[in-house]
Design goal:
The complex is a heterodimer of chains A (268) and B (514).
Chain A: E1 4-14, E2 20-31, E3 36-40, H1 47-55, E4 62-67, E5 70-71, E6 79-82, H2 94-98, H3 100-104, H4 109-122, H5 138-151, E7 156-160, H6 168-185, E8 188-192, H7 196-202, E9 205-210, E10 215-221, H8 224-230, H9 233-237, H10 242-267
Parallel strand pairs in A: 3-8, 3-9, 6-7, 7-8
Antiparallel strand pairs in A: 1-2, 1-4, 4-5, 9-10
Helix pairs in contact in A: 4-5, 6-8
Chain B: E1 4-13, E2 16-25, E3 42-44, H1 47-100, H2 125-143, E4 160-169, E5 175-185, E6 206-211, E7 216-218, H3 228-231, E8 234-238, E9 241-242, E10 262-264, E11 268-272, E12 278-282, H4 296-309, H5 316-347, H6 349-362, H7 371-378, H8 382-406, H9 410-418, H10 423-460, H11 466-475, H12 479-507
Parallel strand pairs in B: 5-6
Antiparallel strand pairs in B: 1-2, 1-3, 4-5, 4-8, 7-12, 8-9, 10-11, 11-12
Helix pairs in contact in B: 4-12, 5-6, 5-8, 5-10, 5-11, 7-8, 8-10, 9-10, 10-11, 10-12, 11-12
The chains are: A alpha/beta (268), B alpha+beta (514).
Chain lengths: 268, 514
């Protein structure tokens, strides 16, 4: 198990018209092994950029990310990704999608097949192993994506709005599944979301980011994720601390959005 | 090297003065700008006059062409209107018929908004069947086909026997009536010596046999007692209708003083010629002559014949086999080179930059425009034709592969990298399968273009091939073979596309589901 150290990262790039964008400024984070952290923020606050830097798809202009005591220089199997949708390989069956990582690593079929089938059982797709992914519903596809990521046994899982495209009911079930998998596997998870409820329910730590330049605005440590592992998520929402925290973060993000809108109107 | 000079020349034409631009060589020994003297009525054109003159020449020619096109288009309007009326008539008839049958009760049939709902518009099988049958009915009725009942035939050419009388007057003023018997026979029927009883009097009965769609001139006086030349005999009436025409009355320039008359009779038109003879044009009807459009059964018969015995000593299978061989080999070569080229362009900035100008320049050049060049370079052998088809397929396949690579969702590639795949594994397991639907679409287009190109290339230069068959047939005016060739080309092209679609459904079932 490994944690993650984000050390003073800044990201600044030039625009074709001569200007530049400061997407991130001086972001520093230390995530312990086995922690689950959700990231919230208005659009344009750089949360996806941050995730892409951690994943190794983008190089920061300053600072560095360290996993397993080495600096991140590109994508690697130690950091798994779960995307919103459309990241599955629709030319493969469910089982082939889930076993993609081990197959690419050249492992023997006998060594990984048991784990793949076990993961498909956990995400409730035992009857759909031979189906093609385009035959599945959106919620089922995201369960395949989770299983595929876990089958590769990464140290850190990065989730970019993994449940964003699902309907409310499916989404709630999937949130429980994410918590269950987090507890069972003990993985370090960073989850980006637009939903405040999702951030509160799934984040031991909740990071609120602010835009222009993208930076950390406030951080919370919350008990809800731990509670949700064993309880119904609707019960968790009844917790006396839940509603005030939700209200506080909502107001915070609301004010930031207002400021962006106001600035745009002044500029226009 | 002879110097050439542009001249503006003024000349008289049809009573008006016209000015026109002409290019003319400078005579030997003269030097332009020094000793050169332009011909009479001409001046050396200035730069502006050269431009304006060219525009004028182009404009007047294009104006004539535009008029021809407009006349053609306008004259087609009645036929199009009739065809649309037939379509609508069948539609209403079909609807009326359907309303008596049990209506379908599926989901689409319950939609109230169908006009503008694309998903509610489905190709109607009954309309397709009627449309195809109607094509054959129209074809048959214009050719008098034996496949369809006679009442559907459009009026054909007059066939059989008819007669009319003429009244002759000799130089002395004696008149006599005689009959002209006309017998119109089918093309290809054996001609006979058509003789009739000459009758009595100074004018004798005449007989003439005419092949359908032809006309005949009857020198009526050849068996009469008085002749046009020696006795000043002439016709003064046809079927009792008198007229004033004397072919011997001319002015100093040799122009006729009177206009020769024309008569529309039951079986056709009878006219007195400038020389006083009778011109007989039997009714031609509105059917097409076999030379222009043979009947369907004739085409079918020639299909049976050339399938069995070949055309010009080459079997139909050989013609077709050569054409298909060229298409398949040319297409495969184009795909083998074009797909990797497209991948390189989709995956590397440098290759994209290197090949973009070449591909974008070559793509709009139709392969047909390269035929003369290919013949000069490779001769008329197989290499040239296959090279042409290779070029036709190459750019299409390259562009299809390039857009297939560009169409990969970046999240798929990111996901694969995060799962530990190498570049080679990503190409093999993500990029190639993801681009297959695009490549199949490109392959379908390329096969279609190749099939069209091979026929055109064979029209120009080939020993065998379905296009060659058409060219040979056109030299012998065998319209049935030409038509047969066109139909075979259409059916084979359609068949190729159907095969490609089947292969696509089988091999890339995930198409459009990403």
């Amino acid at each position: 198990m490994s944690g993650l150290a984000i050390d003073n990262i800044s990201m600044r790039f030039d625009l074709p018209n001569g200007g530049h964008v400061q997407a991130l400024q001086d972001v520093t984070l230390d995530i312990k092994p086995g922690e689950i952290m959700s990231v919230l923020g208005p659009s344009g606050c750089g949360k996806t950029t941050l995730l892409n830097i951690v994943a190794g798809f983008l190089a920061p202009t300053e600072g560095e990310t360290r996993v397993n005591d080495h600096v991140v220089e590109g994508p690697d199997a130690e950091r798994g990704m779960v995307f919103q949708q459309g990241a599955l390989f629709e030319w493969m069956s469910v089982r082939d999608n889930v076993s993609f990582g081990p197959r690419m690593a050249g492992k023997k079929k006998a060594d990984y097949m048991g784990n793949v089938d076990h993961l498909l059982d956990i995400v409730g797709l035992q009857d759909f192993k031979e189906k093609m992914v385009y035959e599945l519903s959106g919620g089922m596809q995201q369960r395949v994506a989770l299983a595929r990521c876990l089958a590769n046994d990464p140290d850190v899982i990065l989730m970019d709005e993994p449940l964003g495209a699902l309907d409310a009911l499916t989404r709630e079930k999937m949130q429980s599944l994410v918590l269950k998998l987090w507890k069972e596997t003990g993985k370090t998870i960073i989850l980006i979301t637009h939903s405040i409820d999702e951030a509160l329910l799934l984040g031991e730590r909740v990071l609120v980011m602010a835009p222009r330049p993208g930076r950390i605005h406030k951080e919370y440590r919350l008990p809800f994720a731990e509670m949700g592992v064993n309880a119904d998520l609707r019960e968790v929402k009844e917790h006396p601390q839940y509603a005030p925290t939700r209200e506080e973060i909502l107001t915070m993000i609301w004010d930031m959005e207002e400021e962006i809108m106001g600035r745009t109107e002044e500029g226009a | 090297m002879v110097d050439t000079v542009n001249l503006m020349c003024t000349f008289e034409r049809l009573g008006t003065t016209q000015t026109e631009l002409r290019a003319s060589p400078v005579p030997e020994g003269q030097i332009l700008g020094e000793s050169y003297v332009p011909p009479e009525g001409c001046d050396v054109a200035t730069g502006w006059e050269v431009f304006a003159g060219q525009m004028g020449l182009l404009g007047s020619e294009l104006w004539t062409e535009t008029q021809n096109v407009l006349i053609g288009a306008l004259s087609a309007i009645p036929s199009i209107a009739i065809y649309v009326a037939i379509i609508l008539a069948f539609m209403f008839a079909w609807r009326a018929l359907k309303s008596f049958l049990t209506p379908t009760r599926d989901y689409t049939s319950l939609k109230t908004v169908t006009f503008g709902d694309e998903s509610a518009v489905r190709s109607m099988l009954s309309a397709s069947i009627i449309s195809v049958v109607l094509i054959f009915v129209i074809w048959g009725s214009f050719t008098g086909s034996s496949l369809i009942p006679r009442f559907l035939h459009l009026p054909g050419p007059f066939l059989g026997e008819a007669s009319f009388t003429y009244t002759m007057e000799d130089g002395a003023g004696n008149r006599d009536d005689a009959e002209v018997f006309v017998r119109v026979i089918e093309a290809g029927a054996e001609e006979t010596d058509y003789e009739v009883d000459p009758g009595d009097g100074i004018a004798a009965n005449d007989a003439t046999e005419i092949v359908e769609y032809r006309s005949a001139i009857v020198a009526w006086d050849r068996n009469d007692a008085a002749s046009r030349r020696d006795d000043g005999a002439r016709i003064v009436a046809i079927n009792g209708q008198e007229f004033e025409f004397d072919a011997s009355l001319e002015d100093e320039d040799g122009n006729l003083l009177q206009t020769p008359p024309t008569f529309d009779l039951d079986f056709g038109r009878v006219a007195i010629t400038d020389r006083g003879t009778i011109n007989i044009v039997p009714n031609q009807g509105v059917q097409m002559q076999p030379l222009y459009l043979p009947a369907p059964e004739v085409v079918w018969q020639s299909f049976i014949d050339i399938a069995k015995y070949g055309y010009q000593n080459v079997y139909l299978t050989v013609h077709l086999g050569f054409s298909l061989f060229r298409v398949v080999v040319g297409f495969l070569l184009g795909a083998i080179v074009g797909i990797p080229l497209g991948y390189a362009m989709g995956l590397s900035n440098w290759f994209r930059g290197w090949f973009d100008p070449i591909v974008e320049f070559m793509r709009p050049v139709p392969p047909l425009a390269l035929i003369p060049l290919v013949i000069i370079w490779f001769g008329i052998g197989e290499v040239g034709k296959i090279f042409l088809l290779f070029l036709a397929a190459l750019w299409i396949m390259a562009i299809a592969a390039r857009s297939g690579v560009s169409g990969v969702r970046i999240t798929k590639v990111h996901a694969a990298y995060s799962l530990g795949a190498s570049k080679w594994q990503i190409l093999r397991h993500v990029i190639i399968p993801n681009s297959l639907p695009e490549i199949f679409t490109g392959a379908r287009v390329a096969m279609g273009v190749c099939w069209g190109t091979v026929v055109a290339a064979e029209l120009v230069a080939a020993e065998e091939g379905i296009g060659k068959m058409i060219t040979t047939a056109s030299k012998f005016q065998s319209t049935d073979i030409i038509l047969l060739g066109v139909i075979i080309i259409g059916i084979v092209g359609f068949g190729i596309d159907m095969l490609m679609r089947m292969a696509e459904r089988k091999l890339v079932p995930w198409k459009g589901k990403g």
